[in-house]
Amino acid sequence: MSSAERALLLKTTPLVIGVRLGLWLLPSRLVMSRIQRLQVRYGRPPGPPSRPVGRIVWAVRAVSRHVPHATCLTQALAAQMALWRHGHASTLRIGVGRDKHQRIVAHAWVEVGGEVVIGGDELHQYTQFPELTPAASSGTCGLVPPGC
């Protein structure tokens, strides 16, 4: 493993753990809102992206394997935050569907440029919620559907 990859893993570890702890201690909507608020408040880092999308996603997945209960939502939120830190715009998607026992299940994934980069397993079985975007222009820090 290169020193750049080790450095990326070291930066990603507290992010994944922080998101996981946040989801354990707080309602998920609050964690999602706070991440969106940070992105609205600080904007994208200046300049070109500092790391390729694939390496960032690799780091989130690698760290998540060692964090208990790092679900798809944990990974998606951590990936979205890591991608933002490194200058990539991304979209968090959430959908619902039914499992093989007909129970309602939810799933989260992240897209960059319309392509799924993490959480892309069997997305055809989920009905996607409308996109949630930061309320940058309205002066609020919550999540609002586009066009509001």
- Any low-confidence stretches, pLDDT <50, length ≥5? 135-148
Biggest sheet: strand arrangement: 3-2-1-4
Biggest sheet features: 4 strands, antiparallel
Q: Give the H and E element order.
A: HHHHEEEEEE
Which percent bin holds the helix content? Answer: 40-55%
How many β-strand stretches? 6
Query: Structural class, judged by helices and strands?
Result: alpha+beta
In what range is the share of β-strand residues? 15-25%
Distance between the termini: 46 Å
Give the overall shape.
globular
The gyration radius over C-alpha positions equals 15 Å
DSSP helix count?
4
How would you state the average pLDDT, rounded? 85
Explained architecture:
It is a single chain. This protein has 148 residues and is of the alpha+beta class. It has four helices and six strands. α1 crosses α3 and α1 packs across α4. It is globular, with a radius of gyration of 15 Å. It starts with a helix and ends with a strand. The C terminus is likely disordered.
